[in-house]
Amino acid sequence: MGTKNIRCPECGSERVWKDGLRHLSSGGTVQRYICRSCGLRFSESTANNQVKFNIFRQMFKEPDSGKDLSETNIFQSDLSFQPVTEGLPLQISEYITPQGSSTVTITEKNINIFPYNSKERRVGVSSVRGAKNSASQRLVKMENVAEAKKQAAGATTKLSEADVKGKLLEFAWWMKKQGYANETIRCNTSALKVLVERGADINSPESVKEVIARQNWSGNRRKNVINAYTLFLKMHSAHWEKPKCTIEQKIPFIPTEQELDALIAGAGKKLAAFLQLLKETTMRAGEAIRLEWTDIDFERRIITLNKPEKRNNPRMWKASKELIAMLKGLPKEGRRVSCKATCFTLKHAMWRTRKRLASKLKNPRLEKITFHTFRHWKATILYHQTKDPYYIKQFLGHKTLKNTEIYITIEKTLFGEYSDEFTVKVASKPEVKALLETGFEYIYEKDGLMFFRKRK
């Protein structure tokens, strides 16, 4: 059904219908509309910001033959958007662009702030009376000449939605040519899109700073947005003074193994296999998404990662029988093990599973588990078992030992700095394999029996 007092910002039609709601991250909603005349979809804020023109406006008056024609003449005029045609009744008729024009008038000043002007439109002012009189066709100059010169010099105006999309597409293609990874391209363009949606003008660094200052983002999120916009300015050979950003070092959340297993058991078939893969290999979510069937040796139960993220080292792991069985149960619909699933779809499935199980098991800690939590948990447990930071560095694929030091702190806190308590097992040869798979390490052999131990 139609709506009152809402006009299309593109064609000005009143045939505007409601077209659902846009749900914001802050919890609010924005009404969306669709124009039945031109098909444009726009939001309520766009409609409210549009400039309304009074078509018949007392801008001029009829000239008096007894007065000097150099004085301002006011008469009734018709202000309208006209298509480009020959024989316009007004001698002065020119394109109005965001950069302004050589002849800036009061009429043009109003039209230049119209949100959806385009180069295909030409603005003309035609008089109702006295069209043949050249003196009546003179436009009133702007009262503030300094402001006119400022606009003509290229004062920035906010980009339209179509211009923003073009800028983001150009930015993405520039990063692709520079050799950036697809995930980096996605994150950077997404960061700029968020800035625009929250009111920033990406052509104005000061506007971007104001929007960033109003956001309640974490230090890492703020840093990523600042770096994305810095890269955008680099594309245009521009620079800006970066706002200060402080990153607080936080200890990652380390759940128990029982909590991780409960989440895997309650997940769906594809998500459960994905989570088990993360638990055993410490892959990042993006690395596991790109894993292909040719990277898995089912006979020897070996998984190889040749496309690591963040320029880390390639790695290989020995998989358990449980993981191999779960991977074999997945449909082989393409080269990738994750089929057509994306990081976004898996994150959404993870969010629903966590929420459901946290409510069912009465354990809110499950909602704190993310894909990267599996990597933190595995690294902490491995250091507790081996006390070898270099082994953890190699297992995780880190370039330097500095990134691995955090797990030493976590292990000391969780298990005690001087804890040397072990669980000891004595086994014969048939039981050796099962003990090794559960984390026990071989100590020595005596009287045909082998002794194993594992830290508590």
3D structure, described in words:
The structure is a single chain. 40% of the residues lie in helices and 14% in strands. The protein is built from 16 helices and twelve strands. The chain has helices spanning 44-49, 106-112, 145-152, 161-178, 182-197, 205-214, 219-235, 257-266, 269-281, 285-289, 321-328, 343-361, 371-386, 389-396, 405-415, 429-437, and strands spanning 16-23, 29-35, 41-43, 56-60, 75-82, 122-127, 296-297, 302-305, 315-318, 422-427, 441-446, 449-455. The strands form four sheets. It has a three-stranded antiparallel sheet with strand order 1-2-3. Strands 4-5-6 form a three-stranded antiparallel sheet, covered by helices on one side. Strand 2 (29-35) and strand 3 (41-43) form a beta hairpin.
Structural class: alpha+beta
Q: Strand order within the widest sheet?
A: 1-2-3
Number of strands: 12
Major sheet? 3 strands, antiparallel
Q: Report low-confidence residues grouped into runs of 5 or more.
A: 50-156
CATH T-level fold name of the largest domain: hpI Integrase, Chain A
The ordered H/E elements are EEEHEEHEHHHHHHHHEEEHHHHHEHEE
- CATH-wise, what's the superfamily of the largest domain? Intergrase catalytic core
Separate helix tally? 16
Tell me the domain tally: 5
Strand content: 5-15%
Span of the ends, CA to CA: 68 Å
Query: Can you give the helix content as a percent range?
Result: 25-40%
Shape: elongated
Just give the CATH class of the largest domain.
Mainly Alpha
| Mean pLDDT reading | 77
The CATH architecture name of the largest domain reads Orthogonal Bundle
